[in-house]
Amino acid sequence: MIAPTEEPKFEDTTPEPKEKDTPQPATRTVPTLASYTNLQKLKIDGFLKQQSVIVLINAGSTNNFISSKVVACLILEKEDYNGFKVKIANSQILKCNQKCPRVKLILEELDVVADLFLLPLDGLDIVLGIDWLSTIEDVFWNFSKLTIKFFNKEKQVVLRGSQATTNTTQHLERVPKEESCGFSIRIHKFQEMKPKEIERTLPHSLMKF
Prior knowledge:
This protein has 209 residues and is mainly beta. 9% of the residues lie in helices and 39% in strands.
């Protein structure tokens, strides 16, 4: 007499369908005072409310900044801003959430009006970056003579400065908003599966979130 045998049971290894993630807008790390040589920075003496200030014109800076100490000392108007985070040289992350609107400063014979974001700058008072440089047409930057030439109201302006040293610059880098990117691994139990079968099944168990 032949006794009936039970068919071997295997656990279902079919991966569960992935839920569709809602697409999120991509954020990038935007360099401000990072990854640029000192030749792209020019230090100039300026005046703010008749007080002497050190101004750094930086072609590698995305935004304009002002020292928090200068703002407090000169009692400048400031307002809250839904801003961004900035990483400085010691890897400390600072939140830039205030700005001084339409600050008027003088660079030699040039009157400058710009919005400046507050940061605890070290060794300088103001940074003028792309936000300001983009308002000027046809800028001629002479790195050997440390001059910047451009026309303002049909009059040629020449700003003369000194090369910025590492002591008067800071490594600032805008960091992206809080987002996470990684892989979650879903583990299943397998019974008597050969290595090749495992290799075919495992990639389906990796899900990016």
